[in-house]
Structure formats: C-alpha cells, structure tokens
Amino acid sequence: MSNDVIALLRVSSDAQAGPDRQGLPAQREACEALAAAHRLHIVEWVELKGVSGAAVLGEPKFQRLLERLSDPSICGIVAAAFDRVFRPSRFSDFAILDSFRDASARIYTGAGVLDPGTQNDALLSLITGHLAGAERDAIARRTRAGRERKRREKGVRAEGGVGMPRGVAFDHKAQEWSYEYPAAEQVRRAFELFLSGETNMTEIGRRIGLGDRSSWAVRSLLRQPLYCGIYRVNRNWIGGGKGIPRAPEDCYEHTVLDPPLISIGDFDRVQGRLAEIVGARPKKAALEDRPVDYAGFAYCARCGSRLMAMADRGRSWLYRCPKDRRTRKKTCDLGQFSSSKLDPVVTAALQAALSDADTIIRLVHEGIERSTRDAPSGAELGRQMTKLSNRRSRLIDGYEMGTIDPTDFRKRVASIDAERNAVTLQMEAVEPPEIDESACVDLAYAFARWSRLGRARRRRLLESFGVRFWIEKEGRGYHARVRVSRIEIGVLSNAAIYKKIKRLGVE
C-alpha cells in the first residue's frame, strides 16, 4: 500500500493562523510528527485560511483534495485533529466521508487512524464528526455570549473593525474609542450644513468631499449616535451588514467618547428635522400598489432589462428602460411608454397568445428546457445549501440566546426553509417534470377572460406562473407603436404548480 498522504491545515479565521495561536504553524508541526510516526510521506500541503469547518464543502481547495483521494497513489490525509477536516452543521456534510470510503482512504489524526471504509471506523467517524459539530456550536454560543457581556457591561465593541462609522475608531487592545481626523471633521461639517438649512443629502456629501452619489452615506452618519459620544446597542447583526431590531427591554447604551464630536442638543435637533423630512416625503408605492397592470413583468426587447414603472411628475405613469438615454447609462434607445398606451397592448397580446392550451404547453416545455440548460452545477447547489443551513443555525442560536424576537425568528426561518426547498428540488430534479395538460387548459381559459379580470388577479396569475414578456417599439416619436415580441413562462421545478390555478379563484 502507498504511504503518500495529503496534509490538511485549516483555521476558521486569519487571526488563528499566527504562530502565537494553535494555528497553521502548530498544525504543520503536528502533521509532520504524525507522518513520521506512521511512516508516511506528505506529497502536498493544503492550507485553508478563514474557512469554517461547517463550510469546507464550498471551498475549491477542499473539493480538489477530495477529488485527489481517488488517485491510487494517495492513501489518505493527515490532520492535527479530526475537526480540522470538517465540523458538520447538517446531515449532508457527512457525505465528505463517502469520498474516503469510496477511495479506501484513511484519516490520520492525533487521536488515531480512521478508515471510513470499514464498519467499525465508519460508525466512529460519524460519532467523531457529530462531536466536532457540537463543539463548534458550543464555541459559537460562548463567543456570542462573551461579546454581548462585554458590550453590555463596558461599552466595548466586540466585533472587528469592519463597518466602523466614518471618523470613529476603536482600539481593541486598549479598549478605547476615539475620533479620527480628517474624517471626523467631514462629519462635523455635515452636521453644520444640515443645521444651517441644507437638506439635500447629495449636496452635503459633495461639499464635505464624499462625492456626488453619497445621499445614503450622509443620511447614515447624521443618524449615528457615536458622534455625540453614545455607543447604542439596539440591533442584532446577522452578517452581511444586516440587522434586526432588539426588543426595547434588551436595548442599552454607554457614553464612550467625551467630549463628543457633536453636542447632544445639536444631535437631537438633527434627528427631529430628519423625522420631519421623512414624514413629509411620500413613500414610493410597491409594484403591486402602482396604478399599472404589468410592473415587474415587462422587459426591454433591446437590452433585456426589466422596465421600470414610474410616475411622470405626478400626472401619469410610465414604463421606461433603466438604460434609457434619459438615464446615466444611456445605452438603450427603446424609449418610454405611458401605462395607458402599453397596458392595453399587453392585455390584448397575452389574451391572444395564452388563451390557447397548446401554446401554453409549448411555452412550459421551453421553460423546462431553459431551466435544465441553465441549472447550476451540483457543487454550486451544495454550496448554496451549506450557506442556507449555516444561516439557519445562526438564527436558532440567536433565538435560544434570546437575542432574536420570536416573530421575526419564525419569518426568517420560513424564508430560509423556502429557499432550501427550492434548492432541494433543483438537486433532486433528474428528469424533466410532466405537464398537467388539464391544468394548462384551465390556465388558457383564464387568459381567454383576461380583459375582464381585475389588476390584482392578473398579477397573481402572472406571478404564480412566472410569466414574462418583452416589449419592442416600431417607429419613432410619440406615435411609435408598441408590441409584445416574446412571451415566456418561467422556470418550473414541477409541472404540478399549474394546479395553483384552482386556488386562485378563476372561474
């Protein structure tokens, strides 16, 4: 039997890779000692930095390592500990052991040698993997609890330096807050301009040196209480810059900067003025609430962009390509159309094209072929499933610690489960789904009555069946004609979705 092995080194964060921690140097020494003890020859070193044990399947280096196990000259891998190989967060993570079993490869660690291809070691591998996953969950809970305790007791920023407000710094070694100049002077100038009567956020950003497209950044810094010296904790951050509000009884704040950059009186006046501006500005209506029939379903036949539905100075509603010559991109010449001109044309086109069951069946076949052709690879689906499972685990941990509101927790878990079900259907889809022709006939009957259906019912049908259409213009100027150049029925994972027609109330 060959004695060639691959050495695996993994740390979950870059900070753990240093020589003062049990990171990569320590793991390298352990692997060399294990190779010498078992008389193995290390032919390759695989280093994974900043990769969680629950996300190794999404790492290309680890995927290549598993592929190399099929090489007869490789007898296995050597790692400092079993949890360096993986820490399962879901049952599908244990599929990693299949690669070792199929290749008759072994796992050499400080705790011994495991051969997942044998009956006894297969069971021991599952138990060891489960314990490694449980340990990861316990570490995550302790880490979050420790960070929360520091924030609550001392006003310490427990997270890293990512996402710090402009002009504010926190020294983790000294555990001290400070203002950084000249960025802090930009912030002071923004408050002065706003209090002097300038309420155009873009203009404020331009005058303090943030550029022309800085409206959101200026509005954010005007709301940041750290500029008046207060570190306020009123949200739970869930990654990706997203946060959810805490319960009122779970919010707290500390005075961490004295003297402050902005006085508390000035800060309160700014917040009051911001509230007046937001209250006076009408919110943009959601797509389904706008007085147009096909917002969100119409696409430009020339550049492929989805058409915007927008109000024309409060008088009428228009459809416009986002790359139109009137916009900054200025790459499309489709132009714009009033809803009163485009909606009747689309209504007539949909009624004429989709009132025939044979046409609907053909479009569904095209949608299935398109989804099969454009379907992501198995590895990509596996990475998506791993990310969703990790997000779900973090939600559950936050709920158990009491940092996530139960109502919000249920909504977010339901959203993640819906995404997981969609990915699961894609992973399980081996053969094209069968089409329920009787349901297609029902749908054709609904489109035969299309002009008599209300806006809400039309939108529900279009959304349920993933109907999209592309708009083309014939001629120039105000009298140019509009036509529907193409109609598609969206990607369907199962043709039984057509049975939804019976639940939509179409008679």
Give a concise summary:
Helices cover 43% and strands 17% of the residues.
Structural class estimated from helices and strands: alpha/beta
Shape: flat
Query: pLDDT below 50 for ≥5 consecutive residues: which ranges?
Result: 492-507
End-to-end Cα distance: 72 Å
Tell me the strand order in the biggest sheet: 2-1-3-4-5
Compute the CA-based radius of gyration: 30 Å
Number of domains: 4
Q: Overall pLDDT, averaged?
A: 80
The total of beta strands comes to 17
Oligomer: single chain
Q: What level of helicity do the residues show?
A: 40-55%
Sheet bearing the most strands, described?
5 strands, mixed
Per DSSP, the total helix count is: 14
Beta-strand percentage range: 15-25%
Task: Describe, in plain words, how this protein is organized in 3D.
The protein is flat. The chain has 14 helices and 17 strands. It is 43% helix and 17% strand. The C terminus is likely disordered. The strands form 6 sheets. A 5-stranded mixed beta sheet has the order 2-1-3-4-5, with helices on both faces. A 3-stranded mixed beta sheet has the order 12-16-17.
